[in-house]
Amino acid sequence: MAGKKVLIVYAHQEPRSFNGSLKRVAVEELNRQGCAVTVSDLYAMDFEPRATRKDIAGVLCNPDFFRYGVEAYEACKKRSLTSDIIDEQKKVQEADLVIFQTCRGCMKTRFVHFPLYWFSVPAILKGWMDRVLCQGFAFDVPGFYDSGFLKDKLALLSLTTGGMAEMYTKTGVSGDFRYFLWPLQHGTLHFCGFKILAPQISFAPEIASEEERKEMVASWAQRLKTIWKEEPILCTPPWYFGQ
Amino acid sequence: MAGKKVLIVYAHQEPRSFNGSLKRVAVEELNRQGCAVTVSDLYAMDFEPRATRKDIAGVLCNPDFFRYGVEAYEACKKRSLTSDIIDEQKKVQEADLVIFQTCRGCMKTRFVHFPLYWFSVPAILKGWMDRVLCQGFAFDVPGFYDSGFLKDKLALLSLTTGGMAEMYTKTGVSGDFRYFLWPLQHGTLHFCGFKILAPQISFAPEIASEEERKEMVASWAQRLKTIWKEEPILCTPPWYFGQ
Predict the structure, then answer these.
(1) Which of A113, B85, B86, B90 could form a disulfide with A162 if both were Cys (CB 3.0 to 4.6 A apart)?
(2) B175 pLDDT above the threshold of 80
(3) Which residues, in sequence order, are CB contacts of A93 under 8 Å at separation 6+?
(4) How confident is the model at residue A115 (pLDDT cuts 50, 70, 90)?
(5) Whole-number average pLDDT of chain A
(6) With an 8 Å Cβ cutoff, is A51 touching chain B?
(7) Taking every annotated instance into account, which residue ranges of this chain make up the domain Flavodoxin-like fold (chains A, B) (predicted)?
(8) How far is B180 from chain A (nearest CA, A)?
(9) SS3 of B211, please?
(10) Given this model, what pLDDT does residue B111 score?
């Protein structure tokens, strides 16, 4: 799909990691299709995760009582957010598809998963969501969920886990993996209007063989060949909780 | 309960906020009981949320391939984590009860909620969880969920929301509020062994009247009077998903 624009928001400290490989093949495959790919490499950028008054470049509406959400909203309208936020918002604005590539776990044993980033994304990526997807840019009232401002865009979470697939089932020790996707896919991305493509979950690459890891990377590259033909998931509670 | 130790991990930028009031009355009430209360005021501390190699004060196990979880585990065993992590771990270690006091939303309208921190906690608090609750300190293998290292401690999430209670029901626009507690209470705190006390959720203080806000603060102070007699919740999927 020549001409499509893709933003990859990438959060891993080590370029040679499995996450780094997934990011690299995505860039290659999407470039091959003629897409324009931008990568926000959050650790390399030392991206600021803290939501503070430094995010407001201009004068505060109420310097005596700081409300982050209110100040960010007003600053967004006046284009006086701090430049790192504006830079990221421009990348999101231009993108047809935003891929979030990160790691949810890291192993110190061959046997059990460690939820290093606690059933969620690392704080550096959480901070990207807190600060970049602000009111006035990503949503407003009206203008959320199906009418969120980013409703013409696709989003896809590509996560690696420490745990094996069988741990993430309804009866497994960590519950169905879809449970922990609820706050990210529905509460965050869908709220902003994004259509959600099925997540790409690479289970337990650290305990896989070299060959299995290569297969996981290859299957991601393979999926990307037809990514523009995919239908979004129906992002409602039954997808997550099977009601 | 004189002699009990409580750590309040507090994440709000504005001391005069409703969150600030909830924190203040908790300190007052617990002091009145003779408890020793410590507050980690994350924004005031400018707490670092990013998990990077700076967290390892000593020599890395593998400087050529950085795995955060592995390096943090080894550094924890050798007591060579960076000092801000060690300071927080000491506070957790000494506490009988850890209260997390934070805000999940901030309003810019009287009518609809804004999930400012995206169905989760702000990145600064997420980063506290990522970095402080590391393997070797909070859990190991064996040693997680009911046998997590912090199993003799209680934890309680005290959250304020932007949205009103009726939005956080199974049929409400944001789903049952318990859905978004799963990654925090179960995936994080229970994984480390904490017994979970029922969450204290103050719905939509920004659209409440001054009197209603005072009532919410008073009911939190009232609950704390008998907090040591409370039984933990049964922290399993039925509590969250009603199966």
Answers:
(1) A113
(2) no
(3) none
(4) low
(5) 91
(6) yes
(7) 4-102, 112-224
(8) 6
(9) helix
(10) 45
CA distance B18 to B40: 17
Report ipTM for this prediction.
Answer: 0.93
Q: Give the whole-angstrom CA distance, residue B176 versus residue A100.
A: 26
Return the amino acid letter for B208.
A
Block residue for tokens 């939190």: B220
Number of A/B CB contacts below 8 angstroms equals: 205
Alpha carbon distances (Å) from A117 to A45, A114, B93:
20, 9, 21
Tokens (6 digits) for A233? 């998931």
Pick the closest to residue B125 from A50, A115, A181, A105 (CA basis).
A50
Q: Where are the alpha helices (DSSP H) in chain A?
A: 18-32, 42-45, 68-77, 83-94, 123-132, 177-181, 210-225, 237-241
Percent of chain A with pLDDT over 70: 92
- Nearest Cα neighbor of A8 from A155, A197, A169, A167 is A155
Identify the band that residue B243 occupies on the pLDDT scale cut at 50, 70 and 90. Answer: low
Q: Does B186 touch chain A (CB under 8 A)?
A: yes
